[in-house]
Amino acid sequence: MIKKYFSFDFQVIGKVQGVYFRKFTKEQGTSLGLVGWVENQKDGSVKGVVQGDQKKCEEMIHWLSNIGSPKSKIEKMIKTNEREIDKLQFKDFSVRDDKKQK
Asked: Where in this chain does the record put each Acylphosphatase-like domain (predicted)?
């Protein structure tokens, strides 16, 4: 049987920049055995992609929606592009540098 993985995109709105949200998101994702990325957006939100075991992804959804970094204040988490995938598209969980944005 081929293992299926779960994938979703997310955007977290609230006080999520300047509060180590990306660092804690990477640590949480890595601790759950998930892969993906997270980056700051110009509008003050944080967005990213998470992939891995569906139950672990559900734990990550809860974390992104309700917990976050200690000093963050999450107003809303928007989840999109939920799907099953045959293989992971990333090797690990990374923080993307917002300096690369135009």
From this structure: 7-97
Residue 38 contacts by C-beta under 8 Å, 6 or more apart in sequence? 21, 22, 25, 26, 29, 46, 47, 48, 93, 94, 95, 96
**Residue written as tokens 């299926």?**
4
pLDDT tens for the chain, 102 residues: list them: 668 999 999 999 999 999 999 999 999 999 999 999 999 999 999 999 999 999 999 999 999 999 999 999 999 999 999 999 999 999 999 999 865 444
Residue 53 CA to residue 96 CA, distance in Å, equals: 22
The pTM assigned to this predicted structure is: 0.93
Catalytic (active-site) positions: 22, 40
C-alpha triplet 93, 13, 42: angle, nearest 5°: 80
- The structure tokens 């892969």 sit at 35
Look at residue 47 and give its three-state secondary structure: strand
Tokens of 7: 């994938």
